[in-house]
Amino acid sequence: MVGEVFVPDWVVPANVRALQTTRGGGVSRMPWASFNLGDHVGDDEAAVAANRRALRSRLPGEPCYLRQVHGIVAVDAGQDCISTEADAAFARRPGTVCVVMTADCLPVLLCDRRGSVVAAAHAGWRGLLDGVLESAVAAMAEDPDDLLAWLGPAIGPRCFEVGPEVRHAFVARNSSAIAAFAPTGPGKWLCDLYLLARQRLVRLGVRAISGGGSCTFSEADRFFSYRRDRTTGRTASLIWLESV
After folding, report:
1. Which pLDDT tens digit goes with each residue over 1-23?
2. Does residue 160 contact residue 191 with C-beta atoms inside 8 Å?
3. What are the domain boundaries of the chain?
4. Which segments within the chain are labelled E, that is strand?
5. For the structural domain made of 5-155+209-241, what CATH number should be given?
6. Among 73, 110, 115, 108, which residue's Cα sits nearest to residue 93?
7. What is the mean pLDDT of residues 161-171?
8. What residues pair up with 243 in beta bridges, in sequence order?
9. pTM for this model (two decimals)
């Protein structure tokens, strides 16, 4: 058992490493089958531990698992981050692994062009609205124009239906967000998380943005989806620096 992963498709410095897990290749049973990494979703603890060990074998160090709360706090993954309530982590020390876990929310990986700092952010719509990407970029303390971003697998724009309060909240913060919502029925809108994230990043000055082509809801063989299944697992998006 090794767990199925893939390498994000983006151009980054040679010492930047990243991985995205999928739902395949683990030991968890339905409804968490099979490479579930979340220890808070009702899965068997032994299965989660085995899946995490399989992931750890691919990494230079223990991942900095966060207690994600749909907030905007960004922490240093080089510190003791076990059980820390945060939704983003950054690292400047080689071998320190930043990770966020998702099952529809948008994972965003970031690095700078020099390969001196990396970050991972958990951007559900609440965190995205309140500024988790802004927190992650600020924590990296680099010129945003020198940053590179990858948008990992999230619920796609044809599947994420929201109410008018979500649309109003985003548009009230930034009128250009109206382009990320399409009416689908009385009081219902389809929401494009990927577009909202790109808009936020561009406003920050981050222009080199890759990814954003997956849909966790419709790609049931590859990804977990809370919106689709409710009781389900979590995939992980990871990034770290290698020693040069």
Report:
1. 578 999 999 999 999 999 999 99
2. yes
3. 5-155+209-241
4. 5-6, 16-21, 63-64, 74-76, 88-91, 97-102, 106-112, 118-123, 147-151, 161-162, 181-185, 188-191, 208-211, 235-241
5. 3.60.140.10
6. 115
7. 97
8. none
9. 0.96
